[in-house]
Amino acid sequence: MEHRPGLDPAVADIRRAVRAALAGVTGTVIVGLSGGADSLALTAAVAFEAPKAGIAATAVVVDHGLQGGSADVAARAAQQANALGLQARVVRVDVGDDGGPEAAARTARRAALHQAARDAGASAILLAHTLDDQAETVLLGLARGAGATSLAGMAPAREEDGVVWLRPLLSVRRDTTQAACTAEGLGSWQDPHNADRRFTRVRVRADVLPVLERELGPGVAEALARTADQLREDADAFAAMIDETIEDIVEHVEAGIAVSVPALAANPPALRHRIIRHVVASEFGESLTRAQTLEVARLVTDWSGQGPIDLPACRARRVGRRIEFTAS
């Protein structure tokens, strides 16, 4: 518990979350800063906590160039980071159109932050997603009929390509970051896209979650975040089980990979389906839908001589006691 006289509770909550996230981190970290309340509150907390932990921190502001005046917004965010005691730099990116504007901007932003981490020799990148962002992610996954892995939402820590992505604020509500900025005299930027109802996430934030809170009672966002935590534990456990068994049940074939039918049949459906998805994702870089997964599983459980199944980037067929996945 914080014992600093007069320390605002919101500031204390965020510093405590950042302190926990930085435990065990060494060297240099990158903070993703947009100038919004969430990332600004995170940056302020990192500026306070990192030096005490012997960690060098740098703020990186990604300018997507999607709105008029974005360069000015980015420059102001960098100036605020400097005033807080962090070196900051602005990175301008070109945003494509794959997957829609939100997904394309996210892809460009992550690539820029990852490159900045590599350039700085940083071991971690800190992002400012909050509990509210987590709840919205779970609701969107439910609406799409996504599986447990998607419903597990965002992980507090995840290593990718040698860099750990940290999200210290997943247990912190959005109004707490806003209160922290007010308490510290930080003027945050209000992204117009956060009020643009063309975006599904905005409608979830502005309409769906408030209706659920009103009709079902308070605590819906927290409950959704807890659901993500529980499902992530399950997903991690399944992933560990697959890693332990996968080498014993697969073998390489010409232009692809084969999986043992008896081994798949011996596993419960949940694990069988995950193995099928894992094989296609790792070998061909594609994600299967549930319908596609079930069709492949029928080659194991309901085999009646049916022919090959066309899948993204590959084809599955039963050959004797094996399911062969070959490039299409």
Plain-language structure description:
- The chain is an alpha/beta fold and 328 residues long.
- It contains twelve helices and eleven strands.
- It has helices at residues 9-22, 37-52, 70-84, 101-120, 131-144, 148-151, 174-183, 200-216, 220-249, 261-266, 269-284, 290-301, and strands at residues 28-33, 56-63, 87-92, 124-126, 157-160, 163-166, 250-253, 256-260, 309-311, 314-319, 322-327.
- The protein has a six-stranded mixed β-sheet with strand order 3-2-1-4-6-5, sandwiched between helices. A five-stranded antiparallel β-sheet has the order 7-8-11-10-9.
- A hairpin with a 2-residue loop joins strand 10 (314-319) and strand 11 (322-327).
- It is elongated.
Order the strands across the largest sheet as they lie in space.
3-2-1-4-6-5
User: What does the largest sheet look like?
Assistant: 6 strands, mixed
CATH topology of the largest domain: Rossmann fold
How big is the Rg? 23 Å
Helical region count? 12
List key phrases describing it.
six-stranded mixed beta sheet; Rossmann fold; 17% strand; five-stranded antiparallel beta sheet; alpha/beta; 11 strands; 328 residues; Uridine Diphospho-n-acetylenolpyruvylglucosamine Reductase, domain 3; 2 domains; 53% helix
